[in-house]
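Structure tokens please, single chain.
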Amino acid sequence: MSSSSLLDDLPRSWLVVGTARDGPLVYEAGWRHREPDGALTTMKRRLGPAWLERDKAGAFRRRRGRPRAEVLDEHAAIVAKDRLVREIESELASRAAAAEHAAQACVTFRDVAHAYL
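Here you go.
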């Protein structure tokens, strides 16, 4: 599988700045996952604390200085978002394949006996 086809298979995703319950700004990733039946589900995951602050007008701006290791700037958040979407989509695809394989499998006498007992 080439790199371009892997990127084509990933859904479009977006980065959102949100506020955690205790107040600090955080980055969140959002995308729409397509189920095997074609239905779309909006997915949202928190990435981590954002190296942002609010200005006087209430808009977000980058903090001064270098971000600490555990805090994400915009570029690190984009990389983390893409990695997270790729991991979760891969996991969901493998779950769907396993469920389809289980649905197609023949029922054995052993399965019937275990269900009966």
